[in-house]
Amino acid sequence: MESRTSLASWQALTKHAQEMKHTHMRDLFDKNSERFAQFSIQLPPFLLDYSKNLIDSKTLTLLTELAKECEVEAWRDKMFSGERINSTEDRAVLHTALRNRSQKPIMLDGVNVTEEVQQSLNHIKAFSDKIRQGYWKGYSGKRITDVVNIGVGGSNLGPQMVTEALQQYSDNSINVHYVSNVDGTQIANVLRPLNPEKVLFIISSKTFTTTETMTNARTAMKWLVSASFDESAIAKHFVAVSSNKKNAMEFGIDKENIFDMWDWVGGRFSLWSAIGLPIAIDLGFDNFIELLEGAFEIDEHFCRAPLEQNAPVILALLSLWNCTFLGAQSQAILPYDQSLHMLSAYLQQAEMESNGKSVTWDGDEITYPTVPSIWGELGINGQHAFYQYLHQSNNVVPADFIGSVESVTPVQGHHETLMANFFAQTQALMAGVNEEQVRADLKAKGRTQDYIDKVSPHKIHKGNRPTNTILMKRISPRSLGSLIALYEHKIFVQGILLQICSFDQWGVELGKGLANEIQKEIESGEVTQNHDSSTLGLINYFKTLSKETVHNAS
Ligand code: G6Q
């Protein structure tokens, strides 16, 4: 397959980037009073302002041309229609079918996926209603008060991020908890205050083989049986979400209590499926549907809007521009909304696991920088921690600022302060402050010439740091669904532009396999593998010290 670097638009962008590197955004704003109108998109759930990027109209034309040359629209249509675009795993990529609110049939291997999804939604509704209304009873006849979701990665981050974000929409009839870490501290802390008679466990694992999840699930099962003295209690306290029904049943879960998952849903794109069961239980089924509706709204936009007005396409093109052409290596996600406190962790997995790769679909080495590392924190907390770096370090970190016009929890005076900071930061990152301004300011404050000469270099902010601003009306199930879908499609387009298979994750397998072997060595006390001297030294140190700890304790 032809390398992206040989495309005419790619070559023109490489040349154009050299010109733009000598341009300052401040001058672009001074020269063009229409910049905001020209480089922003208003959609019902949010406004996307991308004018504070180092772009002009030529950049946008060339980037759009690149999207056309890469056939982004044709690839998008392949994804939505169920073609097997996950080529390394030979799978379709149909998370959009999970929120296909039009009910349009989508055929895959002779099966109408839309119908299967509807059946699964019916199952989720019936079950979540039963739990929430108290009709589902535990082994001693008491209603369920607490749900513990056991899952990791894609089977954890999405539901947890969403339920945290939408707590204001919960009636708190059920407390939902999450266990993802195999570090026993987490499950012990979660279970300690709970009453086994009133707890329901959801074992969320697409494969039902993930060591961490299986270990936590076994611990939960022992905890329940040691309280109930009755193995039949398991059926009343354990349900599973999995595409591996056989393993789930062997584990002891009733067939009726296993929710469907399909191989055409990737873990990190699965919160719209029954993996979202904790969302439906915590917030109610209607709110779960609202989340799907919001995502569907962006699916429609992605499928219909022209490339130059297509929000996910624009975000992907800008990421490519900033990273591949201008050399940025990381990107910050900075929500100015307490509800979104897990968003950067969620997007970190979504983008880095999808596109953090270095070979093309055909297995050829990629010769240009691909996606940045994604990191972030709530904006205000970040301001008092790492924004120094964003403003003045010699690495440029493009950032997405995400805020809301209305707070979900209005407290007098707070939202204005929060949003004043939100607007101030992108202005400061873009415009900066030059030496002349710094000196004039210090002089106006009556500082001595010596002081001005000494301090001025430290107070200069070069600015010219790219940001996108996503201004939501309010965080709601619907608008959150839209926001997540926006990023999902951005990631998809990035993959197409970079010729990366976004839907596999081979990079996590090597470490997993080695861990299984090392666990056997730790448990048997016999080191059988060839390890480098560092790994061998560390394992031996661990074994010696843990033996001593056991010995001392006994
Ligand atoms: C996501 C990844 C990964 C996966 C977890 C859990 O896209 O595939 O994060 O979700 O490893 O896998 P299981 O759901 O199979 O336990």
Structural features, described:
The longest helix has 22 residues, at 477-498. The chain has 554 residues and is an alpha/beta fold. It starts with 7 loop residues before the first helix and ends with a helix. The chain is globular and about 80 Å long. A hairpin with a 3-residue loop joins β1 (40-42) and β2 (46-49). 50% of the residues lie in helices and 10% in strands. It has helices spanning 8-20, 25-31, 35-38, 57-69, 72-81, 113-132, 157-165, 184-191, 211-228, 234-237, 245-250, 277-283, 285-304, 311-325, 343-355, 379-383, 387-392, 414-431, 435-444, 449-459, 477-498, 509-524, 533-553, and strands at residues 40-42, 46-49, 107-108, 111-112, 146-150, 175-179, 199-204, 238-242, 258-260, 330-336, 373-376, 399-404, 467-472. The mean pLDDT is 96. It has 23 helices and 13 strands. A 6-stranded mixed sheet has the order 1-2-13-12-10-11, sandwiched between helices. It folds into 3 domains: 4-69 and 305-431 and 465-504, Glucose-6-phosphate isomerase like protein, domain 1 (Rossmann fold); 95-289, Glucose-6-phosphate isomerase like protein, domain 1 (Rossmann fold); 509-553, Phosphoglucose isomerase, C-terminal domain (Orthogonal Bundle). Glucose-6-phosphate is lined by residues 152-155, 205-207, 210, 213, 266-268, 353, 505.
Q: Determine the CATH superfamily of the largest domain.
A: Glucose-6-phosphate isomerase like protein, domain 1
Report the average pLDDT across residues.
96
The low-confidence runs, each spanning 5 or more residues with pLDDT under 50, are: none
The tally of structural domains comes to: 3
Helical element count?
A: 23
Total strands: the figure is 13
